[in-house]
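To whoever is on call:

I kicked off a structure prediction for a single chain this morning and the downstream step that reads the tokens threw a length-mismatch warning. I double-checked the sequence; it's 361 residues and nothing unusual in it as far as I can see. Pasting both halves so you can look.
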Amino acid sequence: MTAAAVEAPQAKDTDPHGGGPDGPSGPPPCTRRPLTRAGGLLLSVLLLMLVTAASIALGAKSIPPGEVWNSLVRPTGSDIDVVVRELRVPRTLLGLLAGSALGLAGALMQALTRNPLAEPGLLGVNAGAAAAVVSAMAFLGIGSFHGYVWFAFLGAAAVSVLVYALAGTRSATPVRLALAGTAVTAALYGYVNAAILLDTAALDRMRFWTVGSLASARMDTIVQVLPFLVAGFVLAALLARPLNAVALGDDTARALGARLGNTRIATMTAVTLLCGAATAACGPVVFVGLIVPHLVRSITGPDMRWILPYAFVLAPVLLLGADVTGRLVAAPSELQVGVVTAVVGGPVFIGLVRRRRMVQL
């Protein structure tokens, strides 16, 4: 990681027409760009609705649209009803929730560390969840989702606390947080690899979870993680203005009255809730929390008050779109959503990096 990647933006990078963070001073005087961004957000919501409908209607098993609709509104207990109501609907709901969580977590991470390459795994959240899950499988014999989901979440939370402690509770700068998260991630993934190589049974149980998948989604899974996700969504919304001040640099943020320590702790808490719950439910899905904030920032500018709503809407578009693609291209089998996002996300991210203006914070 270079110093440029975490360098705080200077005042000249802010957009005088409302694209830059304006801190606590209120909305920009010019309304043209906010109106444009509002229209883009409405189009994003419509796109999300289309992808949601496609996720319910399309899959490895071909079902006519009329029968899909009948299964939703007038179920008769047929096999088609089981496929639609017990498999596709929970899978779609989990994709919506997990996608929004990963998108928000990525946007928060990039704002907190002032690093355009940051993503939810930078603080070791994914590594902590994976280490807890493999420990539960290898040493406690737990193999069901209902058994290890809480281990995954607790592992993610414990590692977030550890990273913040290593970075220094009073001097947890973006650079320190990123370095501490990278070190902890490397150590934990070394442990995970050693554990699954020594225990083939754990390897068999871990292989689908580690690539990320929505295939095991059930309504009770959603109920278990929903309280954590809702808490993360609310906390993320409250952090928009403080993170706008943080983006101006520590000295400027203090001059504006921002409480940097409280903002960083609250942001790490939100990331842990969002990414920890999403990772526990569907595994460590990569690239969603990295790519979506980049795309969003090219539309909204650096104002977190717009980045967060856009990320909340567009991240599940990417996740559900990848899931539908994986179901269709390998029918009657399927590709896991984590594989599809990695294959698609790599070239897209390279293209984004080449367009320098899109990766600056």
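Update from on-call: the warning came from a stale cache, not from the record. Cleared it. Sanity check on the structure: DSSP finds 15 helices and no strands in the chain.
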